[in-house]
Design goal:
alpha+beta, Deoxyribonuclease I, Chain A, six-stranded mixed sheet, 14 strands, 22% helix, globular, DNA-binding, Exodeoxyribonuclease III, magnesium, metal ion binding, manganese, ExoIII-like
DNA sequence: ATGGCCGCTTGCAGCGGA
């Protein structure tokens, strides 16, 4: 099985990229962030025609998330949750559902973490509070659904370590890398979640986002801020996790590119 | 050294993103 996450920076602008990518990469699940579409404008028909069911929640202009699941594989979502039940929020940043899979029940949570804008700002305080509440909710889920694995995938807007930053000196203590943000991520990992990408040896300087400005992509001046966390019971089944730079090379790309995880039978 | 793009809007300049 495969699951991917992709911040598309407007699904209206990127729908064809998503459909083309799914045709070439028929993943079981796809989490999208920054759809930037109200629910009445969501391209449900086009996505269903491509063989995927979809759960989505949006708002005007900003944010918006979607969770796609491959119909041919027979997935039926239950326990659907839009946003965090423990956190009142007009911003639409979370979409979740549980699925029965060949590797047992799994709850997928697609997340668009707040950016935070600048360390110490009002938006930064919101970011840290939002993550703390997400941690509380996932802790609650682990108690309520103890036999269900968890995959938390999305745009975390946090580079976990300096190895995930093209130039740590430039970014030092800034937004996306600051101590409190990284500690908040550690709080999530402490629930028994694991950064799937770092379960494996990886070449250096692999990123999932590159600034549109300053030839960021050509210079590989990027960050790894799009993550897939898998829970303890899924960890032994993860066989591969990779970043697909292909879509970032297209005309009018998103500034993020897909991250994919593959799991299945227990690794031997 | 600085900042350089992109998408969105009760829109044509300003905000947010990262």
């Amino acid at each position: 099985m495969q699951l991917a996450t992709w911040n598309v920076n407007s699904l209206k602008m990127r729908l064809q990229h998503v459909l083309d990518w799914l045709a070439a990469n028929p993943v079981d699940f796809l989490c999208l962030q920054e759809t930037k579409l109200t629910d009445d404008k969501f391209p449900k028909d086009e996505i269903e025609a491509a063989g995927y069911g979809v759960i989505f929640t949006g708002q005007p202009t900003y944010n918006g998330v979607a969770l796609l699941y491959r119909k041919e594989a027979g997935y039926v979502p239950d326990g659907v949750q839009l946003n965090n039940p423990l956190y009142e929020d007009v911003q639409r940043r979370l979409v979740s559902a549980r699925f029965q899979t060949a590797a047992g029940p799994v709850r997928v949570i697609g997340a668009y973490f707040p950016n935070g804008q600048a360390v110490g700002s009002e938006k930064y305080v919101y970011k840290l509070g939002w993550i703390a509440s997400l941690q509380e909710w996932i802790a609650q889920l682990r108690r309520e659904e103890p036999d269900t694995g968890v995959i938390l995938a999305g745009d975390f807007n946090i580079a976990p370590a300096d190895a995930d930053v093209h130039d740590p000196a430039v970014w030092a203590d800034g937004i996306l890398v600051s101590g409190p943000e990284r500690e908040a991520l550690q709080g999530l990992l402490a629930l028994g979640l694991h950064d799937a990408f770092r379960l494996f040896e990886q070449p250096p300087k692999l990123f999932s986002w590159w600034d549109y400005r300053a030839l960021g992509f050509r210079r590989n001046a990027g960050l790894r801020i799009d993550l897939i966390l898998v829970s303890d019971e899924l960890k032994p089944m993860v066989g591969r996790c990779w970043i697909d730079k292909g879509p970032r090379k297209l005309e009018k790309p998103s500034d993020h590119t897909p991250v994919v995880v593959e799991w299945g039978a227990a690794a031997t």
